[in-house]
Amino acid sequence: MKLSKKIIIGAIIIAIIFLLHSLVSPEIDKKFTPENDSDTLSNNDFNSVPPSVSPVVGDPDAPVTIFAFNDYQCTSCKYWYDTNYSEISEKLVETNKANIVFLDVSPLGDDSILISQATFCADEQKKYSEYQEMLYVSQQEIDTWAKSDQLKNFALELDLDIDQFSNCLDSGKYGQDIQSNIDYTNSLGVEKIPLFKIVNFKGEEHVFKGGIPRVLFEEVVDRFQD
């Protein structure tokens, strides 16, 4: 009888553990599964500065830059953005400790490049961050939610000059900039996102893989300013 009670109690404990795990674990893209939050990459393959073609979020002269390798159709990137970005912006960007540059990777879907171009077009009207937030809030299944007309509707919701935005998007004027980002990330062999490279003026750098919590970004940025 005592043995049976122990077995039952053990089974209950295991069931609770699995239930808690299912509640806190995000649903993520199979192709771009982020690795353990504490995992870091060797920096040997990341010793070149990315091309400066993407809009800069924050003070361009901030002492530290966070390069975020990103696709707006990546659910893992959305999870990181939803759970960490606002605090990173508040603690690091708004205090001028760091700025953030989002870099495009090999596209997850057919619409990924057009979506990225839309963010550049929004940046022309000083609404880059607001447009990013709109994209992540609206994200759905890959290639179902952000066609050209929908991207223009997002611009309307943000009160952008729709003629300027539409002409920008339809012209593909930022296509080469997006491709430059993709070529750079491909040269590094980036396969899993989100991925982050943090650099400072001294040339020091640190690379994070996966949905890294905000506190680790703060630790690295603070250390890089000493």
Describe this structure in words.
This protein is of the alpha+beta class. The protein has a single domain (29-224), classed as Glutaredoxin (3-Layer(aba) Sandwich), CATH 3.40.30.10. Helix content is 49%, strand content 12%. It has eight helices and five strands. The chain has helices at residues 2-24, 75-93, 112-123, 128-138, 148-157, 162-171, 175-188, 214-224; strands at 56-57, 64-70, 98-104, 195-200, 205-209. The protein has a five-stranded mixed β-sheet. α3 packs parallel to α5 (148-157), α3 crosses α6 (162-171) and α5 (148-157) packs antiparallel against α6.
For this entry, give a set of tags.
five-stranded mixed sheet, isomerase, 5 strands, transmembrane, Glutaredoxin, globular, 49% helix
